[in-house]
Write a structure and sequence with these properties.
globular, four-stranded antiparallel beta sheet
């Protein structure tokens, strides 16, 4: 066992998307055990996959799992206010001063989900890295870390060959999703494929309207189109 699983005592209502028990996954790769919350079957499958990866000399580790609405909102507002870097499709920092609201929204959505619409809300989707080759504090989650000579290139190659056997796949792939390719983001398909059809646009609109989200008006007037492009258009395998 590379981690311990403890049942969370209460159900987590995931903002109109689904209702599910989550389990606590205690990862040993963060300078001592660190807690992440996962959908139960996702946790079991990931633990099995991590044990198999360990045989190949890879320390498959989580850097982000279930993320509540408030955390996704904080990420969004930090980017919308310029307090956190906004990247273009080539992972280059963009100066958002002087850009109109629609342009800023489109840039943020290349790499960050709308609060309430993130797949991380479900507990089925994880951002992962190889703790054998890079410290989590040094991780930037950029493509260069996962290709060629990047510290997580061996991990990414291993996942491409083996993740499907454990039920995981990459939902954000070049040419198949509006969200930029994320070789660190894996999804447990047996569960996530059941959750996406439950996505409720009306609930999301209510949730965002009642929040203190920056650029809220620009998002709400385009919400249907944004959901179609950045939530529903994903890789299918």
């Amino acid at each position: 066992m590379l981690a311990h699983l403890n049942i969370r005592p209460e159900n987590a209502r995931l903002y109109g998307l689904t209702s599910s028990d989550l389990v606590e996954y205690l990862s040993p790769h963060h300078h001592g055990y660190h807690s992440f919350w996962l959908e139960p079957n996702t946790a079991i499958a990931f633990n099995a996959m991590a044990e198999k990866a360990n045989e190949a000399g890879i320390k498959l580790a989580i850097c982000s799992a279930h993320r509540p609405f408030e955390r996704q909102l904080a990420i969004w507002n930090a980017k919308a206010s310029g307090k956190r870097a906004v990247l273009d499709i080539n992972e280059q920092v963009v100066n958002i001063q002087g850009l109109n609201d629609d342009a800023i929204v489109d840039l943020i959505l290349l790499w960050s989900a709308l609060p309430g619409a993130s797949r991380h809300h479900w507990g089925t989707d994880l951002d992962v890295f190889d703790a054998a080759t890079i410290d989590v504090k040094a991780l930037r989650l950029i493509e260069a870390e996962y290709v060629e000579d990047g510290p997580c290139a061996k991990l990414h190659a291993w996942l491409l060959e083996n993740a499907y056997d454990f039920g995981f796949y990459f939902p954000f792939q070049r040419g198949q999703s509006a969200v930029s390719p994320e070789p660190w983001h894996i999804s447990y398909f047996p569960e996530s494929q059941l959750l996406l059809p439950q996505f409720d646009r009306t609930e999301l609109a209510i949730l965002l309207a009642d929040s203190d989200m920056l650029l809220k008006h620009a998002v709400l007037v385009r919400l249907d189109a944004l959901v179609d492009e950045y939530v529903l258009r994903i890789a299918q395998s």
